[in-house]
Amino acid sequence: MTRSVSKGPFVDFKLLKKITGKKPEDAGVIRTWARRSQISPEMIGFTFGVHNGKSHMDVLVTEEMVGHRLGEFAPSKRFTRHGGKLQKATDDAKKQAEITAAKAARTTTENKI
After folding, report:
1. Residue 32 belongs to what H/E stretch?
2. Residues 15, 41, 62, 36: what is their CA dihedral angle, to the nearest 10 degrees?
3. Is the entire prediction scored with pTM above 0.90?
């Protein structure tokens, strides 16, 4: 569900207070926990350290990011992979095939010399 147009975009007040009157070159990294804050045009050029639950990830704001949330650019969950025993077996078979191909290539080059 989107936010009401009459309310306007949500930008954390403390975050706006940190960037008012500063230039992007002089500000450095601005650390924040406000992942829900929308990116406004005033934030372009600033680098924010967005907290992902464990550490702060540096996010350089560009024009294409305006209207998105800061949290979208600092993922809080790590994707491991899909699959299970079957996926692991196919990965192991693929790795073994690469090893045998490399050994075969090595022996052919040694026989030529």
Report:
1. strand 29-32
2. 40
3. no
Strand locations in 34-79 (E):
47-51, 56-60
Q: Tokens 């996926």 identify what position?
A: 87
38: nearest Cα among 28, 50, 52, 27: 50
Name the residue with tokens 């954390």: 12
Q: What is the pLDDT of residues 15-33, one digit of tens each?
A: 999 999 999 989 899 999 9
Are 40 and 70 within 8 A, CB to CB? no
Second-level CATH architecture of 13-73:
2-Layer Sandwich (3.30)
